[in-house]
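User: Hey, my collaborator sent me this sequence without any context and asked if I could get a structure. I don't really work with proteins. Can you help?
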Amino acid sequence: MNYKIQDIEKSFDGKIVENLGNNDYVIKINDNEHNLKIISMNSKGVEFILDNKYHKAKYLEQ
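Assistant: No problem. I've predicted the 3D structure and written it out in structure-token form, which is a compact way to encode the shape of the chain:
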């Protein structure tokens, strides 16, 4: 699947390689594999750990 993030010029390809269970995944972004753990997800955004680093993304309305 191709993704585009606002204010970033390039898009990227991403896919789920493996569902490890318990909200843990192996994903591939632009041919590089990463470990992803979803901490929480709701209508406002998502909290996750990507390669042992915490991230919080807020959904924006368009």
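In plain terms: The two ends are 20 Å apart (CA to CA). You can pass these tokens on to your collaborator as they are.
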